[in-house]
User: Fold these one by one.
Assistant:
Number 1:
Amino acid sequence: MSFLPKLSVCIFLWFHLCNILKANTTPPSSKTFEPFRITITNKDVPNVMMRCDDLGGQVLKPGDSASWKFRMNLLDSNSYGCRFFWVEGANIRKFSEFNAFDEEIYGLCMDGLSMNRCYWYVSQNGFYYSNYNVTFASSLWSLKHEWKDV
C-alpha cells in the first residue's frame, strides 16, 4: 500500500473519531471552530429599536429576540456596535450605545462550557450580559450598560 492511500485512510478514520467524540459531548459545550452567536432578548421594554453594525435595524417587543452568528476574523478583532432606542408610541424615551461584541465580550464568551455564545437581556433597568442561556433572574446575569435619558 503506497503512502497516499494510507494517508487517506488515516484522515477518514480521524474524521469519524472526531464525529463520535463530538456526539458524546453534552450541550452547551462548543466546538473549536464553531461560529460565535450573539442573542439579544427584550425582557420588558415596550419597544426596543435596535441597529447593529451592518446587520440592519429591528424592533423587539417584550419576549422577542434578535440573533446573529459570525466567525472570528484572522486578527480576532471582530466588533459589533449597537444602538438601542426605548420607544413608547412615537416618542424615544431612552437610548444606549455600546459594543454587543468586542474584545471584552470575546473573553466573556470564551469562559466556561458555553463558549462562543453571548447573551444579552434588555430590561427597563439596562442591558445584562451572560454567556449562559439561563432564566433572567439567575445570578449568572450581570448589568453591563444602562439606559441614558434623551
Number 2:
Amino acid sequence: MHEKVAEKKLVEADPEELIDPIEKQPNFHRLESRIALAGHPLHAMLVAFPIALTACVLGADVFYWWTGDLFWARAGLWAAGMAFLFGVLAGVTGTAELLSVPGIRQRAASWTHFIIAVMLLSILGMNWGFRLLGYEQAVLPFGIMISAFAVGFTGFTGWHGGKLVFEYQIGVSSTGSS
C-alpha cells in the first residue's frame, strides 16, 4: 500500500519538482578543459590522429589484399603503430581531463567513454603487436579482421566522445558565455 502511494506521487510529480541530486553537486557545471593549449583542449585535438590512422590501417590491409604489394603491408604496420601510440597520447590527455574536472568526472557518460576508449586502445595495441611478428603474414586473414573491428570500435568510441561534447558541452570553453 505504501509503495503504491509513493509510486503515485512520483508519477504525478511536477517535472520542475524533480531534482537530479548529482546536478546539485558543486562544480557539476564546470566543464571547461584544463588540459589545453591556448584554450584548445588537447584531447579533442589528439583524437583525430588515432581515428585517421585506424582507418588507414584498414585501407592498407585492403590494398595489400587487392595488390599483393608489400608496401601496403609495411604501411599497415606503421599506421597501426602510430594509431596505438597517438591513441595512448590522446588517452593520457583524456584521462587527465576526466580526473581533473569535477563536472566531467560526475557524469556516467564520461566513464562510459573512458572504458570504451581503453578497450579500443587494447584493440589497437593488439593490431600493432600482431603485425610486429611479421607484417606480411599478419594481414590475411586476421589483420584485416582486426582492422575492420578497430574501425567499427573507433566509430563507437567517437560517437560516445562526440555525445559528451555536443550534448553536455564538455571541454567547450565557457569564455564569452553568460
Number 3:
Amino acid sequence: MDDSDSTTGTSRRPHILRLAMFVAFLLTMFYLVAVARVIDIDAVRRTVTSTGPMAPLVYVIVSGFLGAMFLPGSILAAGSGLLFGPVLGLFVTLGAAMGTAIVASTVGRRAGRDSARVLVGPKRAERIDFVIERGGLWAVVGQRFVPGISDAFASYTFGAFGIPLWQIAIGSFIGSAPRAFVYTALGASIRDRSSPLAYAAIAVWCVTAVLGVFAARHLYRHWRSHPGRGEEDHTSDDAEDA
C-alpha cells in the first residue's frame, strides 16, 4: 500500500467520525421530537398565548428552534393559524420557517462544512461551489417545493455544503410560502373544514406537490448537466490542444 494512500485514509477518519456523530445527533433528535414526541405542542401553545401581545413574536422564535429540532413544520404552521388566524398566522409561519433555516444551516455549517468538503474531495467540492454560485438561492427555493423532504434536514445539509446564510434565509421565505399558506389556513379553518379557506388550502397543496416533482427533476438535471469550473477548464484545454 502506498504511504500517501495510508496518510489520506488516516486524515479522513476524524472527518468521517465527526460527520457520523453529527448525523447520529440529528437522528436521535428526530426520533425524540418527531417520533417519540417528547415535546408537548399544546403546552407550547399555552405558554405562547400567555405572553399576550408578544405572542406572535414569541411563537416565531420558539417555532424556529422547534423546527430545527425536527418538530414537523405542518404542526407548527397549523398552530400558528389556530392561534393567530390566516393572515397574521401566515407571516408568523414564514418567520418561523426562516428561523428554522437560519438555525439549522448555521449549525450545519459549523459542525460539518469542513468535514463534508474533505470527504467529497476537491473536485466535487469545486463543482458544488460552482453550482451554489450559479443557483444556490434557487436550489433552496426548489427544495421547499419538493414533498417528503424535511426542511430542517435540508437546511442542515445546505449549511454543511456552504450555501450562504442569506440565500438560505431568503430561499426559505420564498419557497416556504405555498406550504405555509396551506398549513396555516388549515389550522385557521380547523373548526370549519368545509370553509372556502380550507378548500383553497387543499388546492394550493395539490399544485405545490405537482410543482415540487418538476422542481426536483429540474434540479437533478441541472446538477448532472453543469460541470464545475475545474471540469470546464479541463474540457476547454483539451479542445485547444486538439
